[in-house]
Amino acid sequence: MKLQTKTSLNFLTFTLFVFLLGIIAFYFLLRLQVNQNINVELEKRKNNILEEISSVSSGTKLPPNHNEKILMNKIQDGSYPEMYYGDTIIFDHGKQKFTPYRQLGFEAEFNDQQYYIQIFKSLEETDNLIIRIFLIMTVLVILIIITLLIMNNFTSRYAWKVFYDTIGKLSTYDVTIKKELDLKQSDVKEFDDLNRVLLRMTKKIKNDYINLKEFTENASHEIQTPLAIINSKMELLLQSGDLTDKQLKSVADTHDAANRLSRLNKTLLLLAKIENRQFPDSSPLEPEKIIQKQLDQLEDLTFSKKLAVEIQKKEDCLVQMNPYLGEILFSNLVKNAIRHNMEGGKLEVDIMNKSLVISNTGSQQELREEDLFKRFYKASKSSESLGLGLSIVQKIAEVYGFTLSYKYKEGMHAFTIDFSSAQV
Amino acid sequence: MKILIIEDEVNLANSIEEYLEVEGHVCELAYNFGEAKEKIISHQYDCMVVDINLPDGSGLDLISYIKEQNISYGIIIISARNSLENRIEGLEIGADSYLTKPFHLAELNAQLKSINRRMNFGGTNDIVFNEIKLLPDEFKVFIHQKELILTRKEYDLLLFFISNKNKVITKTGLAEHLWGDYMDSADSFDFIYTHIKNLRKKLLSMGCSDYIKTVYRVGYKFEEN
To answer: B134 partner at 20 to 30 Å CA-CA among A188, A374, B112, B171?
Structure first.
């Protein structure tokens, strides 16, 4: 939930709650006030009536009804209350409906006879008034709440602008790109603090990243150069005709070992670079073409092992990735499928729209998936490979968000890459 | 050919010089940027072997300088930097070829020869070794004036051998020349053997002498008897 929606919702629930309580209190207070007014009025009329009664000489008839509702009952046994105010409902014949009345009951003496007199005052108008006031108040309060909400939204949007700007810039920020993070100045202290901390952090991260990058590159450079010297000296040594066979062999072995070391160094550097995501640019690639090219280059291998190679393109497949990494990814899988194959075996490539399966015949037992992608893991001890090929494949898949899985079925070792979960 | 070798590692520079001078090239060495620039200004060379990382500057700047002066040099970059971008940058700036350290001297030598052939455009491009004649532009081989049909790999092998004649070439060097990064060298030794066996058979069948010698457990040597 967005911060603004969240605060607005909180504001709304709180004000609605307060408003509800307030309006209930308001209603009862208003009612009380109105009742008090009416009571005063009824009291006045009572006094009038009593005055009239006492001014009329005894023996005469009751004074004329003032066209107002007055009920007079003789008190027989004193069961009437002394004097009270109350609400009642009376059927109005004129309007054919019940209307609310306020009543006042009191005793009076007339012609030596005790009467209980009830006078009434219609509440219809005052009730209408109360409802109208009540409605007006409600509408006003709702309007005020809405205006407050809108105003709050506007001001907070303005106040949080820098914050959202920062979030937007952070989400697109990439350490591997040279551009520095450029955050807006804010007049809000907290946001300014946040931006300052973020700038300091990204600067530190970037520096670390650059240092690491430089270190790996420099380390590789520093190692390759002595290796180059070793190799060149060995090659020169081989040219001198006065070496015995034994010496020649030693020189050649040293030369090969240096070569192997160099390959290892290059591969580890590549792994580090992939981990550091130093291959940012990408373009759409066709796996089929890359695999075909690899198979052409490795024709000697497939030919000598008499492999039946089959590429099945079921759907068009385009993968968005760095071309160099793409080549490494597919070539490592192809090489793997050839190297661990058996004489006269099969190598199948199935290309679907969003996935690719490379399967090969080979050893008769299933391999442990969790070991397969480990660095320096070798299924066969005799193999001269470095045991890094599949770790590189997995690293590349990881960088692009592809899913890499292994299955053993009906004598075929199948590696599947699923491109559908790719992060763009 | 007159070659300027720009490399800050004295040992490596000396190895290159030694290997190339046997081939009859005249080599001069420069161990840093300043020295190299001085030599480029005051002397004329046919070819330049240049390291990118120099203590006082970048080899790329030297190449740019040469291109600005409009001097036609063959340029080979030797660098420990292996990434695609570095390669592309080097070739775009005008280098003819890019070798990653560590490289085989035989490979460097073959590259230099190929550049040399390309630069001598007016003259003949043919490579002649006794009865063998190669037409590199057409990928054709003639033995005693008769055409010999070779596969691409066999042709590459023959050209590499003739470029490095009388030199011991290790199996790894051959493997890297033929397959580059595609194949791990350990996998490829058998195929080198097969290709060489086939090439030798074809050459002999055309009445060519047997020039390819096996150096036991090390590699091969292409030499006159």
So the answer is: B171
